[in-house]
């Protein structure tokens, strides 16, 4: 029996951990109304079930790269898996809303470390010429878990207790812990340096402030005192963090990596593409549930074909990457995704979920041309010792881009809907107009990403990842 190469062992451990974390992030949204009813909580209080986790992520994502380098990626990954699994079990046992929020904060500690440390392990295991294959692995949990979340969550809430939306993580977590404990190898970086307390506090609190402001802005108004205070305060702390991190020898966040042109430009393209992707994903289920009358379960089924499209097309994109290069692939992907998104601006109140499912499949096919090449190109020139720090930066920026995409599209939707209501338009027609405008804005974000990718991403900068994979000699 042929022995499994170590890089695929890392890939399996990574997929298990990341799948569990992303699934949990999306599955809980379907249970919020049930939780509010069981705990007799107001919407303002219930949002802390989501916000608490988000803010905990923000604090620990930036430091996760250093922690993995200093104490070992295997130990850190196992700690994150264990913390997330244990916190999931505790969430399921919660007897009050306060307990649930506290246990969600613990989940965020584990979740904040899982993705950056797992990504670092993955890109260390795969050499530069195989990073397109590693990126194909990254896509699996990134697109399947968000698609499954509403489906699984809807089924659980409809047929059993809300507690199972947390318990479902436990068996996956236990399998991941056992698998990782026995098969992963330890890796430390000798030059990890001392703990950068200033970088930890400034980046963690600053990012938390920005994400909080982005989450509250659409509903409470961008000029409200809370949004202004947390948003501007977060930006100020991040500005101080940049100055501090660039002035010390071994910073927690290696901002010097932005000097690498492909890392800088690919990260910005990811900000646009992922922001547009998640922002749209925020609006569409609401459109189906509030205007089309679909359940959370059926709206989840309608969006699932997007994940199928991404996975199916990624197999071809992975082969084409080495000859076509990231610049043309990403540009085409953003154009294709935008064209597939445009028909959503013409959906009506009698649109079939089958039509939406077909469009989502096409949208997924287009996104595959962007997601996989961007992942591979971003890490093209990142050396082994810097992989942990690079993954922290990438994860923090992607988390921010998701929040920014939701904030922009939600603000556009609310503003347009209110404008139509003020002009005397019937409520459902006003909401439909708001959704249409939000979908068009998503197309606009993809268009900007396509232009940026065409002019700023250079295949020459990503040359190390475009080398053909070495062929295995035949016996």
TrEMBL record:
Its main location: membrane. The keyword Mitochondrion does not apply. Keywords: Cell membrane, Membrane, Transmembrane, Transmembrane helix, Transport. One of its GO terms (molecular function) is transmembrane transporter activity. Pfam families: MFS_1. GO terms for cellular component: plasma membrane. InterPro entries: EmrB-like, MFS, MFS_dom, MFS_trans_sf. The chain crosses the membrane at residues 7-28, 48-68, 77-95, 101-123, 135-158, 164-183, 195-214, 226-244, 265-284, 296-317, 329-347, 353-374, 395-415, 435-455. Residues 10-461 form the Major facilitator superfamily (MFS) profile domain. Coiled coil: none annotated. Gene3D superfamilies: MFS general substrate transporter like domains, Multidrug resistance protein D. PROSITE patterns: MFS. The keyword Metal-binding does not apply. NCBIfam families: efflux_EmrB. Belongs to the major facilitator superfamily. EmrB family. This is Unannotated protein.
């Amino acid at each position: 029996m042929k022995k499994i190469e170590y890089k695929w062992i890392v890939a399996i451990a990574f997929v298990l951990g990341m799948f569990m974390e992303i699934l949990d992030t999306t599955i809980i949204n379907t249970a919020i109304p049930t939780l509010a009813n069981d705990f007799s909580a107001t919407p303002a209080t219930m949002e802390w079930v989501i916000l608490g986790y988000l803010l905990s992520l923000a604090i620990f994502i930036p430091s996760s790269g250093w922690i993995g380098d200093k104490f070992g990626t295997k130990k850190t990954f196992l700690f994150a898996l264990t913390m997330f699994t244990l916190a999931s079990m505790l969430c399921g046992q919660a007897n009050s809303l306060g307990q649930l929020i506290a246990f969600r904060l613990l989940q965020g500690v584990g979740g904040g470390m899982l993705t950056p440390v797992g990504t670092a392990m993955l890109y260390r295991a795969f050499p530069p010429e195989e990073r397109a294959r590693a990126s194909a692995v990254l896509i699996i949990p990134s697109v399947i878990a968000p698609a499954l979340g509403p489906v699984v969550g809807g089924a659980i809430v409809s047929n059993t207790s809300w507690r199972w939306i947390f318990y479902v993580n436990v068996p996956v977590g236990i399998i991941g812990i056992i698998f990782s404990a026995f098969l992963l190898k330890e890796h430390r970086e000798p030059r990890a340096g001392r703990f950068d307390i200033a970088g930890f506090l400034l980046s963690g609190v600053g990012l938390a402030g920005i994400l909080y402001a982005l989450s509250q802005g659409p509903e409470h108004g961008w000029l409200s005192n809370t949004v202004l205070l947390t948003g501007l305060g977060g930006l100020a702390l991040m500005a101080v963090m940049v100055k501090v991190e660039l002035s010390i020898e071994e910073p927690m966040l290696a901002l010097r990596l932005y000097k690498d042109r492909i890392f800088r430009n690919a990260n910005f393209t990811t900000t646009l593409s992922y922001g547009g992707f998640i922002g749209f994903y925020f609006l569409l289920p609401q459109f189906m549930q509030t205007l089309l009358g679909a359940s959370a379960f059926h709206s989840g089924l309608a969006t699932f074909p997007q994940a199928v499209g991404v996975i199916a097309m990624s197999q071809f994109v992975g082969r084409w990457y080495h000859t076509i290069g990231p610049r043309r692939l990403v540009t085409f992907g953003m154009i294709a995704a935008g064209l597939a998104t445009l028909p959503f601006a013409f959906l009506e109140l009698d649109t079939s979920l089958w039509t939406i499912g077909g469009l989502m499949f096409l949208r997924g096919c287009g996104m595959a041309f962007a997601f996989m090449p961007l992942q591979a190109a971003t890490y093209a020139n990142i050396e082994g010792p810097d992989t942990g720090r690079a993954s922290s930066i990438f994860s923090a920026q992607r988390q921010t881009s998701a929040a920014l995409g939701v904030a922009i599209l939600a603000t556009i939707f609310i503003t347009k809907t209110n404008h139509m209501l003020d002009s005397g338009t019937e409520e459902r027609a006003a909401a439909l107009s708001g959704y249409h405008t939000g979908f068009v804005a998503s197309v606009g974000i993809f268009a900007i990403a396509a232009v940026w990718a065409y002019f700023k991403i250079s295949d020459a900068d990503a040359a190390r990842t475009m080398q053909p994979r070495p062929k295995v000699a035949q016996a």
